[in-house]
Amino acid sequence: MSNELYSPAEKIGNLLAKTLKEDPHFYFFSPDETTSNKFDEIFEVEKRAWGSLEQKTWDLPESPNGRIVEMLSENVLFSVMTGHLMNGEKAMMGSYEAFFSIITAQLLQQIKFIKQAKQVSWRPVLPAVNLLSTSTCWRQDHNGYTHQSPALISTLLSVPSGLANCIFPMDDAAAEATYEYMINSENVVNLTTFNKAPAPRFADKEFAENEIKNGGAAILSEYSDAEPDFVLAAAGDIAMREIIEAAKIIREDLPGVKLRIINIAALAYRGIGFCNNKLSREKFMELFTEHHPIIASFHGYPETLENIFENYTERRRLRVHGYNEEGSTTTPFEMLRRNAASRYDIAMDVAGVLGRDKLIAKYQDILEENHRHAVNFGEDLIQ
Fold first, then answer.
1. What is the reported pLDDT for 51?
2. Half-sphere exposure of 367 (CA within 13 A, CB side)
3. In the chain, count of helices (H) and strands (E)?
4. Which CATH number fits domain 206-377: 3.40.50.150, 3.40.50.920, 3.40.50.2300, 3.10.20.340?
5. DSSP string, 5-33
6. Would you identify the CATH topology of the domain 8-194?
7. C-alpha–C-alpha distance, residues 4 and 111, integer Å
8. CA-based end-to-end distance of the chain
9. Cα dist from 203 to 47, 123, 177, 223, whole Å
């Protein structure tokens, strides 16, 4: 893992700028959050679409022919974008995760349209519906509980369409590989969820590309032991960071315990991976072993990932952490503690299986100490 920090959202912004520069037909759609979502590099190469309204001194570069379409209405933006896609031209739409669920009904109707259009010989192949979802579930620096909701992920994963991918790049290198996958996709919906804040890089782009090709999950060998006693898995960037940090804690306090670390890059209906390339049960057993406990950290609701895991193995092997609909305007690590999704919560699972009650108490004390500090000083002891 690199000691430097990189923003997945800034990497996506860089790639959007390149696409806008190279493809004169590409459009980017967004509410008024392009800059706060860290996509603002696009303004260096393209202007916002603007009509006849008076321009103010603080307005960003604008033009009647601009290909950055901003409007504080996800419904209108999605409708315009799908019309553009039906002309055979590529586009992407970005928004805060909590507000993408506003277009749920429209998105489900678009999936129905894609399904029907594939059965009509004269219908051309459509560029993918690509949604860039900047997560605010796990970093409530100023927005609070209103800006937390991974509900659209659960919705898409519950629909048996075979036409929706939920993608979770674990770092900026994976975000680059994911973007390239998205921009070249056809006749599918891709919802990609990532964090805005600078974060560690866990692997390189080649690892991420191979993961996409090979069923959407892979072992992080650098962090893993041979013949593991426990499998630790993550789907999501912050989720992966907590898994990696949990492994450090476990190895320090339980040096004899062997761990395997697995990243899950994407989920689809009833499966790990992509709707046209899901992880097989045989490959799952190869990666996750056949009998060892699986402790997973998920960006979204734990039950969503549990339900997918049950298509591969028995629930009794599973302990899944994730967003439990607990939130506030508070510190990043306190958000993890509130949802029982921190590195210490993960380490407690291992200690619990091994009957190490004193170790569980130690971790609980550490979490409580951070809670008191966060309440009193507005910052975390644990980074």
1. 63
2. 21
3. 13, 16
4. 3.40.50.920
5. -B-HHHHHHHHHHHHHHH-TT-EEEESTT
6. Rossmann fold (3.40.50)
7. 40
8. 16
9. 34, 40, 12, 11
Whole-angstrom Cα distance, residue 23 to residue 16?
10
How far is Cα 280 from Cα 335, in angstroms, rounded to an integer? 34
Chain position carrying tokens 């994976």: 174
Dihedral of the alpha carbons of 13, 19, 21, 26, in degrees to the nearest 10 = -110
The model's pTM: 0.95
Establish how many alpha carbons lie within 13 A of residue 154's alpha carbon, considering only the half-sphere containing its beta carbon.
Answer: 17
Question: Under 8 Å CB-to-CB from 258, ≥6 apart: which residues?
Answer: 225, 226, 227, 228, 229, 230
Distance CA 264, CA 168 (A): 8
Task: Say what the pLDDT of residue 143 is.
Answer: 79
Judge whether 152 and 96 are in contact, CB under 8 Å: no
pLDDT of residue 135: 79
- List Cβ neighbours of 307 (8 Å cut-off, separation of 6 or more): none
User: Under a CB-based contact definition with an 8 Å cutoff, are residues 290 and 282 in contact?
Assistant: no
Alpha helices in the chain (DSSP H): 8-22, 74-86, 97-100, 104-117, 151-158, 172-183, 205-213, 237-253, 281-288, 302-309, 332-338, 343-353, 357-377
Residues of the chain with pLDDT under 70: 1-2, 51-53, 55, 58-61, 141
Q: Where in the chain is the domain with CATH 3.40.50.920?
A: 206-377
Work out whether strand 318-321 and strand 294-298 pair parallel, antiparallel, or are unpaired.
Answer: parallel
Q: Are 173 and 204 in contact (CB under 8 A)?
A: yes
Instruction: Kindly state the tokens that stand for 145.
Output: 């509980």
3-state secondary structure at position 320:
strand
